[in-house]
Amino acid sequence: KQEVTQIPAALSVPEGENLVLNCSFTDSAIYNLQWFRQDPGKGLTSLLLIQSSQREQTSGRLNASLDKSSGRSTLYIAASQPGDSATYLCAAQDDKIIFGKGTRLHILP
Amino acid sequence: GAGVSQSPSNKVTEKGKDVELRCDPISGHTALYWYRQSLGQGLEFLIYFQGNSAPDKSGLPSDRFSAERTGGSVSTLTIQRTQQEDSAVYLCASSARGQGAGSKNIQYFGAGTRLSVL
Lengths: 109, 118
Description:
The complex is a heterodimer of chains A (about 110) and B (about 120). Chain A contains no helices and eleven strands. Chain A is about 0% helix and about 60% strand. In chain A, strand 9 (about 85-95) and strand 10 (about 95-100) form a beta hairpin. In chain A, strands 2, 4, 5, 9, 10 and 11 form a six-stranded mixed β-sheet that branches. A five-stranded antiparallel β-sheet of chain A has the order 1-3-8-7-6, with no helix packed on it.
């Protein structure tokens, strides 16, 4: 049974810092891994999707990596801004999509 | 609209009542998903529709939960005889393709329905 874990559960960093969010999954037989952002009271917004054959994807200040053999993915956020404050969720897809519980990120102005 | 639309945005009901939650996916998307997010918990998969195939109901927590997708578009999630533990945000998502190897499967989420069972 696939399990997805995100560490840390919460993170506060000063504006401008680079940061890394971690995601681990127990079953490496996945089709893809996706990172989402969730703002309070809102639905999810897809940030990056990494296919199982890929090692990373980049979008603007965001970079996501995937290491299937170790069951890990990271989301790197460069030059953080207060608008980046949100909950970040990763989701591993095999026959289903299993989500982690998320990392609550707070960027301090 | 251009995105996934869910209604109502908030629903307060009394224990034992039935509720219906609606999801309007993005036009042309063949796959539709329902998830539940309880307070302090991650997202929990409930049910998945792909085209005309039989839905994957493996995530439904009990037989009080059911879902339909009419005409391959709008979906309704029904919870019968609601219990307090059903209180959660129910999220719907759609994607252009279904699950499977090689599928890009970017899911677009609605804003959710916040259900409160008193």
